[in-house]
Amino acid sequence: MPESGNVLLTLRRRPCFQIGRWGELPVSGAKDSGSLKRSPPKLSRRDIFGSTIGAAGVAAGQLSTGWPDSFLRWALLVGGALAGGLVARIDTVDFLWDRANTALRKLQPAPLRKTILALLILAVTLLIGRTVAVAGPPLVNAARIEFLGCPHPVQLRLLATHEGLQSARELADAFERHTAAGNFHCPKTNLYVYAAKPADAQRALSAGWTNDDLKGLGPRPDIWLPGSTIYAADAAASQGRLSKVATHGIATTPIILAVPADRVGDDIRVSREGMTWSQALATAQEREWGAARPDPSQSLAGLLGTIAIYESLGKETGRPLEAAQARLLEHRLEQTLDRGGYPLGDELDLLCRHIRPDPPATAVIITEQQLVRFNAERPLGGPCAATASSAHRSRMVGIYPSDTRGIDYPVSRLEWQDSSNNQLEQAQAFTTWLVGADGRRALLDAGLRPHGDSGGLPGVVFDAKPPTTDSVVNAKRTYELAKRPGRVLLAVDTSGSMRQRVAEQGPTRFEVAVKGVSGALAMMGERDEFGMWVFPDVLGARELLSIGPGRPRRQQAEAALGGITPTGPTPLYRTIVDGVKILAGGNADAVKALVVLTDGEDYGSGLSRAQLVSGVRGSDVRVFVIAVGEASCAAQGLIDVTEQTGGTCRQTDFGGLNATLADLFTLLWKGA
Predict the structure, then answer these.
(1) What pLDDT digit, counting tens, does each position of 139-181 carry?
(2) Which of 449, 464, 479 is the last residue of a domain?
(3) Which end of the chain has fewer CB within 10 Å, C or N?
(4) CA 351 to chain centre
C-alpha cells in the first residue's frame, strides 16, 4: 500500500466499547503497521473520581444494614468497597492489570515469576472462597427472608419470681431485639416469661417437673431467674430429667428503707447511708413514718430484709434476738400495714398502695431495684398492672442501712435430657448476652446493679452473699413464732352453679372447693380462730360454724360443709357486708380476714356496688376473694372492696384452687 498521504487504522482486539479508546493511528511513513505498539493506559482524574464514587456507594449500602462488629466484617467491607469502585470504572482495572503485568515481566528468572503468579492466583482463589463462605449464607438467608418472611424463632421458657416478672420481661424483650438486629430484623428467639415462687420452682425442678407441676406452675423452664442463689436447682436430684444446671450471678440489689420524699428532712438525707437497720427502724418510729415490710413467706425482699433486721437487732444487744423482741418488732410492722391500708403480700403489693389515691406517708422495706423503677415511673406489674394510676405517685428516698443485705441476682440455664440443640444454643446465647455490654445495659435499665457497675446508683457497700441455710431457717422460725394469729371467717359459695362438674367424669365444683378448704384448715395453729358460712340463704349467708378456736373444730367444720347441697343464687355483696360486720372488733392482736370463695357474680343481694363499698369502709377487716369459674377479679365491685380493705382478689381455676387457698392461708394463719 502506498505510504504517501494514506493513513492506516489498526484495531486491537478489545471489547467493542473500547474500540475508540484503543485504536491507534500509525505515523506517516511507517514501514510496518505490525511494528506499532499500544501505549500503556493512563489513569485519568475521571477514572479516580468514578472509582471513588463506586467504592463509596458500595460502602454506604453495606453500612446501611449495620455497623461492622468484628475485624473480619471490617475487612470485607473495605475489600468489597474497593472492588466495587474498581468495577465501576473498568478502565481502572485494565490500568492496574497492565501495571501488574509489567512488574511481573521484569521479575527474573522465569521460575520465580511463575511461582509468584501461582501464589497470587491461590491467594485470590482463597479470598474469593472465604468471601463466599462468609457472605454466602447471610445473602441466602436475606433472600429467603425477603421472599418467604422470617423463620419461626426458637421457643424458650423463662421462669422468674413474681417480684421480678416485669423486669424479666424487659430483659427478654431486649434480648429478642438483640437477636433480630443481626438477623435482618428477624428475632432468633421467642422467650415466654412467667412466674412462680422460687421455693415452689426449686421443689419442682428437684422432682423433674412432673405433670402436677405442669398444671400448678406452668411449662418446664429452660432459663430460671430465681432472685437468689438460696434457691438452687440440682440436676442430680431431678429424677434424671435434668442433664445440667449452669448458674452464675449477673447482678445485685440491696435491701433498703424507702421513705416518701416529703417526709425526709435534710439531716436524714445527709446520714441516710450510715444508719444500721436497728437505727433506721427506730428513726421511722420516732418520726411517725412507721415501716411496712413485705411478707417473708411471699417475698424474697421480705425474707432477706427480715434476716438483716433480726441480725441488726441481735448485734445491738450482743446476743441472739429474743422472742419478746421479735414479737414487739412484728407487732409494730403489723400495725403499720393495717394503718396504711397495705395488702398482705410482696413488695409490689406495698408499692402499689403508694400509687393509689391517698397514699400513706409510710416507709417501706423494699429492694433498691423497685425504688429505682418506682421513681422512674416504670411499670411495677403484679397487682398494679391494671388498676393503679401513676397520677398519685410521689418520689421516695432510699435509706441504705450500713448492715443491710443484698439480693444476688443469678441466672440458671437448665439443660433437659430432651432439649433440642437450638434451644440449648439460644439459652446459652441469652446467658452470655446478659454478661456482655448490651445485657449489662439492659440490667441497669431494669434497676439492677450488674457486677462491677453501679450505673450512677449510690456507691454503698452491702453484703450480697446469700445467707446461710441456718440463717434462713432460724429467721423463718423466729418470724412464725412472733407473727400474730389469724381470725378468719370463710364464706363458701353454694349456689346452683357449684353443682357443675369440673370435667365430664370429674368431681363437681363444690367437691373441689370442699377439698381445698379442708387443706387450708389443716394449716391452722393453736391460737388461730375460725368460722364458716355458706351462701346463699334467704338474702344472705348461713352460719355453719361461729368464730372460735379453730383446731378443735376442724373436723366439725369439714363435716358440716360436706353435707351441703348447692342450690340458689349468689348473694355475694350481702355476704361480704355482713361478714365484715361480724368480724369487726374482737381480738385486736389478730389479723381479721373475710375469705370469700365464689364462682359467679353477685345475684340476689339487693345491694349496689356503692352500698357494698360503703358497708366495708373504715373497717379493720381485710376482704379476700378467690374467684373461680365465671367469677372475675376484673369486676369493679371486687376491685373496690379488696382495695378498700387491704385485701386481694385471686383469680384461679379449679385445678389451681388448692394451691391458691394454701398460699392465702399461709398469710393468715399463725400455724403450729
Answers:
(1) 656 666 656 667 889 999 999 999 999 999 999 999 999 998 8
(2) 479
(3) N
(4) 18
